[in-house]
Amino acid sequence: MQINKLLQTVVNQKASDIILTVGCKPMLRLHGRLVPLQTKVLEAEDTVTLMKSITSERGQQELQEVGGTDFGFSFGDQARFRVAVFKQRGYIGVVLRFIPNKLLSFDEIGLSETIKKLLWRPRGLFLVTGPTGSGKSTTLATMIDYINQSRDCHIITIEDPIEYYHPHKRCVVTQRELGVDVPSFAEGLRRALRQNPDVILVGEMRDLETIETAISAAETGHLVFATLHTNSAEGTINRIVDAFPQQQQEQVRIQLATNMIAVLCQALLPDTTGKNRVAAFEIMVQTPAISNLIRTTKVYQIASEIQTGSKHGMILLDDSLAILFHKGKITEEEAMNRCRSPVDMEQKLRMPPRMFLGDTPGAAGGEGDKGRKPAIQIDTARKSE
How far apart are CA 12 and CA 111, in angstroms? Predict the structure, then answer.
């Protein structure tokens, strides 16, 4: 079994991942579901051989020392792959994430013009959140590419590993990889502040030091992008504040209230055909009202502000799901499985489609929004991370 043939299958099938583990056939993740390849069941020597064919000596040493290693590599000019190699029950396992070379446009992702406008801000913190596999990397890459084409900036990215390569366009793009160019996100951020950046992308805010440095970078005049594994705007704010000791939390709230630009939470769902995936979003844009809620510890009221903030391009995840359902893009089961409030979602799914799709005057994004246009138009083009 050759790794090149497996990777070519991933590219041809447009799978998001391939899982290689002892005791089962290679498994593709197609549109969110696992599909076995029609090959032999993998044995211990198979996964070892496949691992060694793509893993550097340094990576193999790290695997032996700590039980795992992560890295990225290019598959010719067709794609890149993000790789996780690990030990399980004494055997070697490998998971490869497919990263297409082609960057998606805002229309293909389904993001509104509101997000584009936010990318012209000179400073502030913009967070893209969601569970693993929800498309955060793709969304961030599209945003960075838009800035690269539109503005004159020095962009510094700190990633683990580098996923999308960004050529220099109008911007100078410096991409640093953990373990290769810099030892940690926090160290990369500290060094970046001395490298004359305009825009900084932090692959993930994993620890207190990284969170603290990212907020300080936004506060001192940089546009900072980062990710978190949170599922709502409210949860994102709480996660950041709770990461700090009690005596620092009030100061952090003030910093977030002053420097936050937006929180974009996203999820990927199978469409009704089962052959593609569509994106649902929750978008919070910082307004004076939301800033005040963060400052006064009333984060629990943010959802209400988002619901009434359609003129700013805001939308709740449940409303985004309802729009997708009424467009016939996702099933009722998917909408119910991903929603935050099943009781409210049941009501939204039973409403006339015009309430969400804006077909007639007075169509709205929710029952309490009569007389206004829907919060955002969701484009349902296929999206992969």
Answer: 27
The DSSP annotation for 192-247 comes to HTTS--SEEEES---SHHHHHHHHHHHHTT-EEEEEE--SSHHHHHHHHHHTS-HH
Instruction: Write phi, then psi, for 161 (nearest 5 degrees).
Output: -90, 180
Token pair for residue 136?
Answer: 């955060």
pTM: 0.84
CA dist 161 → 137, 180, 273 (Å): 11, 9, 33
Q: List the chain pLDDT tens, one digit each, 385 residues.
A: 789 999 999 999 999 999 999 999 999 999 888 999 999 999 999 999 999 999 999 999 999 999 999 999 999 888 999 999 999 999 999 999 999 888 889 998 888 889 999 999 999 999 999 998 898 999 999 999 999 999 999 999 999 889 899 999 999 999 999 988 999 999 999 999 999 999 999 999 989 999 999 999 999 999 999 999 999 999 999 999 999 999 999 999 999 999 999 999 999 998 998 878 899 999 999 999 999 999 999 999 999 999 999 999 999 999 999 999 999 999 999 999 999 999 999 999 998 887 777 643 233 333 333 333 333 333 333 333 3
Tokens 């043939």 sit on residue: 5
- Contact assessment for residue 323 and residue 112, using Cβ atoms and an 8 Å cutoff: no
Which structure tokens are listed for 239? 């996660």
